[in-house]
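Lecture 7, part 2: worked example. A protein chain together with magnesium ion.
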Amino acid sequence: MDANAEAICCEIEGKLGYPCFVKPANAGSSVGISKAENREGLIDALNNALIYDSKAIVEEFVKGSEIECAVLGNDNPQASGVGEVVPCNDFYDYDAKYNRGDDSVICIPANMNPALAQQIREYAIEVYKVMDCSGLSRIDFFCDKSTGKIVFNELNTLPGFTVISMYAKLWAQEGLAFDALVDKLIDLAFDKFASKQRKY
Ligand SMILES: Nc1ncnc2c1ncn2[C@@H]1O[C@H](COP(=O)(O)OP(=O)(O)O)[C@@H](O)[C@H]1O
Ligand SMILES: [Mg+2]
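Predicted complex, written out as structure tokens:
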């Protein structure tokens, strides 16, 4: 290992410790993501993430349930109720999402305190507005149900629409069926396009 890599590992160990999560800065579907448990794992994880992007993100391990919220709209976005993913692997890696998707459990609504779920919905709207989203996004959090601590994980501007994907299921739970959801998304896209045209 060269001196620079040694310094990077020492900094990560000092600031975050183990386990930590290493991700390509720009990817999805858990591609290139690893949980590093020690120095050797960290080096492997960094090399793996850097296959997919020239930048890697290293995060502290966050303990908590994986809670997702679907947001829909342009200027006046609405949040669905929240759902929970219980991965069949140690974390929700590619294998747990796509190869063993049937073994990972999706709970809609999430089994949690309604006030905590409401707080997550409000945070989801806040994130959506801060990031200036339009149309749709799925906003994912970690939540420690015993302490009530909520940590924002990521924003998915184009969430999956596979049979296991949460976005459409969350809206179906709110009474918005798949075809009506798609119609709504098309209307929102036309509205956004029209409002952009007016600006120039
Ligand atoms: N900081 C973290 N602490 C604990 N688990 C994490 C952390 N970051 C990611 N994970 C796990 O890795 C999975 C994929 O990471 P995520 O950031 O959601 O990337 P992707 O965009 O590929 O879905 C998450 O669903 C979760 O299971
Ligand atoms: Mg994710």
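The CA atoms of residues 32 and 56 lie 10 Å apart. The chain has a mean pLDDT of 95. Keep this in mind for problem set question 3.
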